[in-house]
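Section 3.1: Structural characterization of target chains.
Under the original work plan, the team committed to producing a structural model for every single-chain target entering the pipeline before any wet-lab resources were allocated. The record below documents one such target. The sequence was received from the expression subgroup and is listed exactly as submitted; it comprises 181 residues.
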Amino acid sequence: MNNALLRIQGLRTYFYTEEGVVRAADGVDLEIFPGETLGLVGESGCGKTVTAKSILRLIPDPPGRVVEGSVFFEGRDLLKLDRRSLRREIRGNRISMIFQDPMTSLNPVYTVGEQVSEAFRAHRRIGRPGPARECGNPGTGRDSIARAHGAGVSPSLLGRHEAAGHDRHGPGLSARPAPGR
């Protein structure tokens, strides 16, 4: 029996452009077990981010599309899950993603507090005062905002797209230890 928390098999994500087909992720296979951390490392443009976004079906269609493969999380194929179930049960609740530049995911129309607490309201079904108490003061730095936003719901799998100094690093995936470990 395979106890992988996340198992990706034959993942192919393509982008259809006027210039032709871009095979951004072409046959990705990987497994992550509870308690493990996996770093996706490679040259710029090799498909690290596309692979990470494909897990949660965050690829804009068009022009992109997952054309083949499977993404099993806790035994369920996320690519076959209906979008409503994916949004309500998985995204932000069981799997969270912290993007490389969290400022691009923040909306200037809303306060940082409103946006950080959104994960709590959506996935823990709590009112407005709860997130501030649970989060504490996340600070005003971009990294603090991202950590509070992504870690606010204690996911089983946390995707982080990090940068350190002048070097850009690809996505990393961390699996929370299995219960009783």
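Confidence is low (pLDDT under 50) at residues 129-142, 148-153, 163-169.
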